[in-house]
Amino acid sequence: MKKSGWKRCVAAGSAAAMILAAHDAEAAGFSVHEQSTSSQGMAYAGSAAGGEDVSAAYFNPAAIALYPGVQIASGFAIVTGDVEFTPISASTNTGAPVTGGDGGNLIHTGYVPAFTATWQFAPDWFAGLSVNAPYGFTTGSDDPGWIGRYQALGSRVRSVDFNPMLAWKPTPWLAVGGGFQAMYFDARLSNALDIGTIGATSLGVPLPGYNPGDPTQDSYVTVKGSDWAYGYTFGVMLLPRPDTRIGIGYRSKMDVNIGGNALFNLSPQGQNLAALSGLIGQQQLVDTGGHAAITTPETVTMGIQHDLSPQWTISGEADWTRWSRLQFLTITFDNPNQQPVVTTESWRNSWFLSLGAIYRPTEKWTLRAGVAYDEGVDSHAEIRTPRIPDSDRYWTSIGAGYKITDATTVNAAYTHIFAPKTSIRQSSNDPNNADAFRGTLSGTVDAYADIVNVGFTMAF
User: Fold this and answer.
1) pTM of the model
2) pLDDT score for 398
3) How many structural domains compose the chain?
């Protein structure tokens, strides 16, 4: 039996797996923006300039120097939406049609908690701790027989970032801050394997009874993995006037080496192929360990906030993220019979631009609004997959805060995100396609997301 056929059969199930080749529908790449309830109400405009509470420390650690005493900010966001794939055509690499439905809504509801606490322990010194979820998504089809099953089924990624920090304010017009990041990743992704095509083509002559694209012969692979990654944050805050703040924040890259397992659920035809591969000393389609190494991108955040009057404040934000670090995803396997799999991603750097305003009609109420443009990281329809239907996004946000007491404020925000229709044109003849056994898939994607965020702040 041809070795290349067996080694490529697992690639169909794992080249887009592990944690990294996926994203949440509400932010570019696989990042999560929902780190501050008050800032979300302004589409995150002015976050790097300190926002309205210590939750802005996620974007700029120097922001904690703006808030005296002991401060606490928390938030809990719920992300819902709709990602609809409209198929145009799908076929195996033999030309046989792949049948199935459209997969329904490909985005699942996500939950994003955030917490920040700070302490002024000296006149010019501040300490803080933030706990956030900077990356994450839950996507996929509930229909195991949908037309894009060889590209993606279920996808779930979770992350938790612990960020202790310090800030120093040596003068009334300058503050600097920095911190350490320790981030935990956990992932579970799955897709179908086209056993019919593998059995019909891997020997050079078709095996009897194997039908390309036959859903009754499909097998399934699930990849699980986790890792800790480490980095740092740094920020500067300038206060050139009492009514104006300018901030620049930096979150470093982090090297992630995800270790996990590839687990197979084989149909009878898949079991026969696994047994046959063992007879020739090239055991495939068996559970094995694996590793995928990537580097998460660094982000530079620049914000400005200006008080027009005691009632009105305007703000702006420009965030740059170095997504071009993700050009390839390489997976290596503990099973020596499975060669490393390299998937071309070709992501590009992206910008997040926003404008916002705050209106304070009374001492207790604060009203917020903002708009944003979130640039997509993937402009190639030939590489884009149902697991990563990335495109530009446009945000509209509103929010409000109500001061219950002098020390406690409740905040709420709502954001609607919509994206222009985008295309997927994967071909088994394209060298950028991770594996020919995935076949050809083309169609269009329509997407939108809604985010509701509720939180509170306390000062002591």
Assistant:
1) 0.88
2) 98
3) 1
